[in-house]
Design a protein that fits this description.
Shape: elongated
Structural class: alpha+beta
Strand content: 15-25%
Largest sheet: 4 strands, antiparallel
Helix content: 10-25%
Number of helices: 3
Order of helices and strands: EEEEHHH
Distance between the termini: 56 Å
Radius of gyration: 19 Å
Strand order of the largest sheet: 1-2-3-4
Length: 85
């Protein structure tokens, strides 16, 4: 049974996620949505998080990609001062 302020998100594209259907779970009052990421993974997310700007935009693959781009080696990992710092 939909809530009074129910927003149907079926078919919407949010970031890399496409909303497939609403998911019902016992003792969960907020709307849960099953989404398929562009990478092929399936996740379940709260509707409020999907609607919130820059909150839930992928299954986690986007964050891993961004972290990989920022990850670089400085060549000082064997320096004894690194442990002190």
């Amino acid at each position: 049974m939909p809530a009074i302020n129910f927003i149907d998100m079926t078919g919407q594209k949010i970031g890399r996620l496409t909303v497939v259907k609403r998911v019902f779970r016992e003792n969960v009052k907020l709307a849960l949505w099953e989404c398929i990421c562009d990478c092929g993974n399936t996740i379940v997310a709260y509707g409020t998080n999907l609607r919130r700007e820059n909150h839930t935009m992928s299954c986690g693959c986007l964050q891993k990609e961004r972290a990989g781009e920022a990850n670089y080696k400085h060549g000082e990992s064997s320096n004894p001062l690194l442990a002190v710092w």
